[in-house]
Design brief:
The complex is a heterodimer of chains A (117) and B (116). By secondary structure, chain A is mainly β. Chain A has strands at residues 3-5, 10-14, 19-21, 24-26, 33-39, 46-52, 60-61, 64-69, 74-79, 88-97, 103-107, 111-116. In chain B, a hairpin with a 2-residue loop joins strand 10 and strand 11. Classes of the chains: A mainly beta (117), B mainly beta (116).
């Protein structure tokens, strides 16, 4: 069974500094997707960044970047120049698409990020 | 501005009552997921539909939960009878999958259910 582990229940960072959130996953599949979602207090789940497993290059979206280590099954999120609006729960997620048509999106337990002014 | 719409946003009910949550996926999306979020368990997958067909409902308690897609614009999650342990936030998400392509999921704002 696929599992996603976020070992840091809580993290804090000073405004304008850089923080890295960890994520590891377990799978026997070779083709899959990885995501980071942000959930602010409003409850809305917002996609932050996405990575296809077959792509070697790490995904980047403005201040957000990932360090994808496929062999180590690691997918960490780096937030540069942290802003107060980055404070939220961050969920790492793994998605696999089976040939029979079914899909599975599995989430980690989340990391609560606090940004200190 | 395309978005996933869920109703109700909040629901308080008494144990034993029937609860129905509704979801309108984004037009053109062919996959729908239902998730339940609690502090203890995090986000749990309840059901997955593709082209309106239920392909995975292994995470859903079968005795009291049911999920359907009567048409492409409506997905429903029903609990009958409801129990206090069902109290959670229920999320619907939709996406587009075609061949090997699997797009991102767009989430609704969730339905917060409290069963007394």
């Amino acid at each position: 069974a696929q599992t996603v582990t976020q070992s840091q229940p809580e993290m804090s960072v000073q405004e304008a500094e850089t923080v890295t959130l960890s994520c590891t996953y377990d799978t026997s599949e070779s083709d899959y997707y990885l995501f980071w979602y942000k959930q602010p207090p409003s409850r809305q789940m917002i996609l932050v960044i996405r990575q296809e497993a077959y792509k070697q290059q790490n995904a980047t979206e403005n201040r957000f970047s990932v360090n994808f280590q496929k062999a180590a099954k690691s997918f960490s999120l780096k937030i540069s120049d942290s802003q107060l609006g980055d404070a939220a729960m961050y969920f790492c997620a793994y998605k696999v698409h089976y040939q029979g048509g079914s899909e599975k999106l599995v989430f980690g337990k989340g990391t609560k990020l606090t940004v200190n002014p | 501005d395309a978005r996933v719409t869920q109703t109700p946003r909040h629901k308080v009910t008494e144990m034993g009552q029937e609860v129905t949550m509704r979801c309108q996926p984004i037009l053109g999306h062919n996959t729908v997921f239902w998730y339940r979020q609690t502090m203890m368990q995090g986000l749990e997958l309840l059901a997955y539909f593709r082209n309106r067909a239920p392909l995975d409902d292994s995470g859903m308690p079968k005795d009291r939960f049911s999920a359907e897609m009567p048409d492409a614009t409506l997905a429903t999650l029903k609990i009958q009878p409801s129990e206090p342990r069902d109290s959670a936030v229920y999320f619907c998400a939709s996406g587009l999958t075609a061949g090997r392509f699997s797009g991102e999921l767009f989430f609704g704002e969730g339905s917060r259910l409290t069963v007394l």
